[in-house]
Design a protein that fits this description.
The chain has helices at 2-13, 26-39, 128-136, 138-149, and strands at residues 20-21, 47-54, 61-68, 72-73, 78-89, 96-108, 120-122, 163-171, 180-187, 192-200, 203-210. It is of the alpha+beta class. It folds into 2 domains: 26-115; 128-210. It starts with a helix and ends in a 5-residue tail after the last strand. The relative contact order is 0.13.
Length: 215
């Protein structure tokens, strides 16, 4: 229950689309790892990531530190990891970390499941077999989605941009529409294309595309 609850909180508290990676000093990094070890004894940290994130419902920004666990093998070529997020409150000796949620990530690697710089975020929990399938076909699905973009006013200007897969989601493209998997691609201009999938047998096809302003 702990993991599910934190997954939900994470989506509400932190705006990943507006985050910027920042450098922190050795003391801040050490304090985060110390706090993490207190909260999760026996769970080693593989690496840390620090971001500057706009304050939700307020002004300015705050430092969010993420602690990533060691990658582990899922089904087939699937690799998974998770990041626990912590917000830094205060400055100097008064600075304190507060847990702010958990995010789940995945990528494909038939080798040793080495950590990658930009794994794909899971906006919803997805079974291994289904997740491996949509990740395997992300490139042809994106090319099919580019054709669909031509008929969408919001998406048409983005057709020629360079996209990388940022996240996988589950939801509906419109109110009362059927629930489907969605691949969320981020462009090199920080815009997004959400490709809704249709499954036929064991294959996936790009069924619809929307281009929301944020992740």
């Amino acid at each position: 229950m702990r993991s599910v609850a934190l997954f939900t909180v994470s989506a509400v508290c932190i705006s990943a689309s507006a985050a910027e990676v920042v450098a922190v000093d050795a003391q801040q990094r050490a304090s985060l790892l110390e706090f993490y070890a207190q909260q999760y004894p026996g769970e080693p940290a593989a690496r840390t990531v620090f971001e500057s994130v706009p304050v939700v419902g307020g002004r300015g920004s705050e430092v969010v530190g993420s602690v990533e666990t060691s990658p582990y093998r899922g089904h087939g070529a699937l690799c998974r990891t998770q990041r626990t997020k912590f917000v830094l409150h205060g400055e100097g000796k008064q600075a304190r970390w507060q847990e702010a949620g958990m995010e789940y990530y995945a990528w494909l690697d038939r080798g040793t499941c080495r950590a990658v710089a930009e794994p794909v975020r899971m906006l919803q929990r997805i079974p291994d077999v289904e997740l491996e399938g949509v990740l395997l076909y992300q490139k042809p699905l994106l090319e099919r989605a580019r054709l669909l973009m031509a008929g969408n006013t919001a998406c048409a200007p983005l057709r020629a941009l360079k996209f990388t897969l940022a996240a996988v989601d589950v939801g509906a493209a419109a109110p009362r529409a059927e629930e489907r998997y969605a691949l969320v691609f981020k462009s090199d201009r920080d815009s997004y294309a959400r490709v809704w999938l249709r499954k036929s047998g064991a294959q996936y096809d790009a069924w619809n595309v929307t281009c929301p302003p944020v992740l």
